[in-house]
Structures are given as C-alpha cells and as structure tokens.
UniProtKB/TrEMBL annotation:
Residues 48-225 form the Cytochrome c domain. The chain crosses the membrane at residues 246-265. Signal peptide: none annotated. It catalyses: a quinol + 2 Fe(III)-[cytochrome c](out) = a quinone + 2 Fe(II)-[cytochrome c](out) + 2 H(+)(out). The cytochrome bc1 complex is composed of a cytochrome b (QcrB), the Rieske iron-sulfur protein (QcrA) and a diheme cytochrome c (QcrC) subunit. It is a multi-pass membrane protein. Its EC number is 7.1.1.8. This is Cytochrome bc1 complex cytochrome c subunit. Its main location: membrane. InterPro entries: bc1_cytC-su, Cyt_c-like_dom, Cyt_c-like_dom_sf, Cytochrome_c_Oxidase_Subunit. The keyword Membrane applies. It comes from the Bacteria. It is an enzyme of class 7 (translocase).
Length: 290
C-alpha cells in the first residue's frame, strides 16, 4: 500500500506545497505589517482630525484623486499608501491642489494652513501605510560641519546633480517637465522629497539611502547657499554649460566679429578701395579734393 502511494505522488508535489506555503506566509506578513502601520498612523490622529482631513480632501482633491483617494484615471493617481509625508510635501509647497492638469505641478504659495495640511496628511495616512512626516531632528543640519557637507556633496553630485544641477539650481527635463531649483526649498521639504519621490524623482527611502546620508545632502545644499560669490568669476546663474556657452557665443563671439569688422574697415587696402569708389562715382580726384 505504501509503495503504491509513493508511486502515485508526483515528483514536483513537494515543491508545489513549499511554494504555496511560502506564498501564504508572505501574504500574511504583508497584510499584518500593513495593518499595523496603518493602525499606528491612525492612532496618532483623533477622530475629529481625521474627519476634518477627510472633509478637506474631498472638497479640494477628490475631483482628481477620487472620494476615497483611489485615483481617477487621466486626472490623478491613487493616494492609498503614499503616506503623510507626500501630502505634507505636495500641499505644503503649493503644488497641490494643482491649478491645472499638466506635465508637472509647479510650486506656489500654499493654500492651506499647516494644521489643515496635517489633518489631510493624517487622513491619507489612514488609507494605507506610507512614509510619515519627518521629525525636526531628522532634517535639522549643521551646514558648517565639514564632514557632513563633504559627504553630502559627493552624494548629491552622484545621485541628484544630473537633474537638479550641481548646486541645486534646477534643470530642464523632457516633455515639458523640469527638476525644480532647491535654493529656496526648506530642509523639511527636501527630506520629504527624498522619502516620497515626487513626480519624476526616484524614491530614496531608508533602505536606499540612510537617514544620515539624507541629512548630509541637506547640509551640502544649505552650505551652498551661504557661499559668498563665485571663485571662478561670474557664476552666470550656476546652471552649467548652457548659460556659459550662450554667453560665449552671443556676447564674446559677437564682440570678436565686431572687432574684426572694425579692423578690416581701417586697413590700407580698405582706405584705397574707398578712394577709388569716391573717384569713380564723383569723377573728382580724391587727393585734390582733400
């Protein structure tokens, strides 16, 4: 009987059972972890604050993001799982509510107070786990710390300067998009942008970049704002070779052309040509006329 059962058992049966067991364990872990994070996010907010945040969200944001934050195709993405930090960044920098649908939301003065932003952030956080609003200790930096600034400069040049320019002056992307300048962005919003990856920016979560590395990048950017002048001369906006090349071609090269024309107009050959032209057109002797 035992030998008959052994013959009937498929050779891949053990692998199938193992695969199903691992899938079940993973699904259970993900569900419990999400529920725990969601519960902890909601526990910090009172029911009154959640109700206020829901009311604000549904009046200002639901036309694009749906009444339950599920998103509206062609208008706005789902906000389930984006976290409170994303709301604080987008609404706190005035990017949301957006004035119109376009390739990129632009920064403008915020519409809501910080208390209202916090309420909306708590409501969105209650819909699904996501990055929380960072504490001040996470983004407060010393921009005079040479070690921190040096490490932040290396990290920024490696990961961010391709889009934001080497000193955070911003730059153009494709299809009407752009990397915004960072010269006036607060430390808090820079940290939140790294946590949430708004629009075209990749996400630099703690698993990708440590909290200290994020602080070092902020220290580098803050330090670059305090640099007096440009050691190489005029910085031309610090936006790189585009402005420098434009300056060379339109101004310097233009001046060289004007100077070359002036030299050509004052040579002996040019003077003789003018004399010959005068004599041919007037029939007078230029020497006697003088």
């Amino acid at each position: 009987m035992n030998s008959l059962s052994a013959r009937r058992r498929h050779p891949l049966a053990a692998f199938v059972v193992l695969f199903l067991a691992l899938g079940l364990i993973g699904a259970t872990y993900a569900t419990l972890g999400s529920s725990k994070a969601k519960a902890s996010a909601s526990a910090a907010a009172t029911p009154e604050k959640l109700a206020e945040g829901q009311k604000l969200f549904q009046s200002a944001c639901s036309s694009c993001h749906g009444l339950q934050g599920q998103g509206v195709q062609g208008s706005g993405p789902s906000l389930i799982g984006v976290g409170a930090a994303a709301v604080d960044f987008q609404v706190g920098t005035g990017r949301m509510p957006a004035q119109q649908i376009g390739p990129q939301a632009v920064s403008k003065p915020p519409v809501y107070s910080q208390d209202q932003i916090d309420a909306m952030a708590d409501y969105i956080a209650s819909l699904g786990a996501g990055p929380a609003i960072p504490d001040a200790s996470q983004y407060t930096v010393d921009d005079k710390d040479a070690t921190s600034v040096s490490n932040g400069g290396v990290l920024f040049r490696t990961n961010c300067s391709q889009c934001h320019n080497i000193v955070g002056a911003g730059g153009a992307l494709t299809d009407g998009k752009f990397a915004p300048p960072l010269r006036a962005t607060s430390e808090k919003h820079i940290y939140e942008a790294m946590l949430t990856g708004p629009q075209n920016m990749p996400i630099f979560g703690d698993g990708v970049m440590s909290p200290q590395d994020k602080k070092d990048i902020i220290a580098y950017l803050m330090n670059s704002r305090t640099q007096a002048g440009s050691p190489g001369g005029l910085d031309l906006g610090s936006i790189g070779p585009v402005s420098e090349g434009l300056f060379v071609w339109t101004i310097v090269l233009g001046l060289l052309i004007v100077f070359a024309c002036w030299i050509g107009a004052h040579t002996t050959k040019a003077s003789r040509a003018r004399v010959a032209h005068f004599e041919a057109t007037t029939g007078k002797d230029a020497t006697n006329n003088e």
